[in-house]
Design brief:
This protein is mainly alpha-helical. It is built from 14 helices and three strands. Helix content is 70%, strand content 5%. The protein is elongated.
């Protein structure tokens, strides 16, 4: 008796151009969420002396990112799992995905404003007022367009409502501002960092080199993702290919911020045990006094005396003395030069 042939479904639906791309973007977002979980854990363990406000803000941003990832998963679950094969569900709207838009907008805006605050605190007149004002306007516009996209998208009842000319214009303008603000933030931080030139001592120069790398990476990846999303929106105006990089961009902003905060030990260099530090001082008892004498003599070259006990750094440079370490209050570190101020929390 021959086995009966399996019944084939006569209706084959290819949803690659819509839900297929969204699945890929959701997977990337989940991966970045996992990275941010590890980064957040490392941050709270390695930097317990940071300001309470900053630690609360990091926790709130992580919770927001978690909510955004949950919205992505619940958004694609009905058409692909619980109601798989339903034409009505496939052709309907995805409200959870739309809600993710404004959640990611709030998250990315908060991260950008943190870096704008850093520019405001460290820069001169043009960096203290003009550029921060421009950046704040760009950030708030991104937030406004994200909310507008979500409001209009929720009024529609199908995926086609997310591809109208109005919705595409909101998305393109949003990501254009994202690219401009991320590049401008990165350029301003680099300008503040190197405006006094590089230090003469190799150890300080290495620290500045590490800081430059971290600063570039903080804004580079978000700018790249936003640029790719912008290009895909223009190339594929009626498709959803841009969601591959659009959906994980909120998680990427949080990961970039946490990486920036966790890089402080890397920037300062290696850690040395306290006993090793004491033995170094006893072997060279006059090293710090000689540095102070050279500083008082008005030397033009940077004199850097660096110790590492969870990284405590003392710098004398062109009449500016800098002390940054775990035992100092925020009031003390506000007087830092850009070399080491960048290493401290926002």
């Amino acid at each position: 008796m021959s086995a009966s042939a399996p019944i084939d479904n006569p209706i084959i639906l290819d949803v690659t151009q819509s839900l297929g791309f969204m699945v890929i973007g959701t997977v990337f977002a989940c991966v970045l969420w996992g990275v941010s979980c590890m980064q957040a854990f490392m941050y709270y363990v390695d930097y317990p002396d940071d300001q309470k406000l900053l630690k609360v803000l990091i926790g709130a941003l992580w919770a927001m990112d978690t909510a955004g990832v949950i919205l992505l998963v619940t958004g694609i679950w009905p058409p692909l799992i619980s109601h798989w094969g339903s034409i009505a569900v496939l052709s309907g709207g995805l409200p959870d995905i739309v809600h993710h838009t404004w959640v990611a907008g709030v998250l990315s805006t908060c991260v950008q404003l943190l870096f704008v605050w850093r520019i405001y605190k460290l820069g001169g007149y043009i960096f203290k007022w003009l550029i921060p004002i421009v950046l704040v306007v760009l950030c708030l516009y991104q937030l406004a367009t994200s909310i507008a996209f979500a409001v209009i998208g929720l009024e529609g009842h199908n995926l086609a409502a997310l591809s109208t000319p109005t919705m595409k214009a909101l998305q393109i303008s949003n990501r254009g501002c994202t690219v401009a603000s991320d590049i401008l933030i990165c350029a301003c931080l680099l300008r503040i960092l190197i405006k006094r030139g590089l230090p003469s001592f190799s150890s300080s120069r290495k620290m500045i080199s590490r800081l430059i790398i971290v600063t570039i990476n903080s804004g580079l990846w978000t700018a790249i993702f936003a640029t790719i999303s912008l290009i895909l929106m223009k190339v594929q105006p009626d498709g959803f290919g841009y969601t591959i990089v659009e959906l994980p961009i909120g998680s990427l902003y949080l990961t970039s911020l946490l990486s920036n905060l966790n890089a402080r030990q890397y920037i300062r260099g290696r850690e040395t045990e306290w006993n090793e530090y004491l033995s170094t001082l006893s072997a060279a008892p006059n090293s710090d006094s000689s540095a102070m004498n050279a500083h008082s003599a008005g030397s033009n070259d940077a004199i850097v005396f660096t110790t590492f006990n969870r990284s405590t750094d003392v710098e004398y440079s062109n009449g500016h003395d800098t002390i940054v370490g775990s035992g100092l209050s925020r009031k003390d570190t506000d007087k830092s030069s850009p070399y080491l101020s960048q290493v401290t929390p926002v």
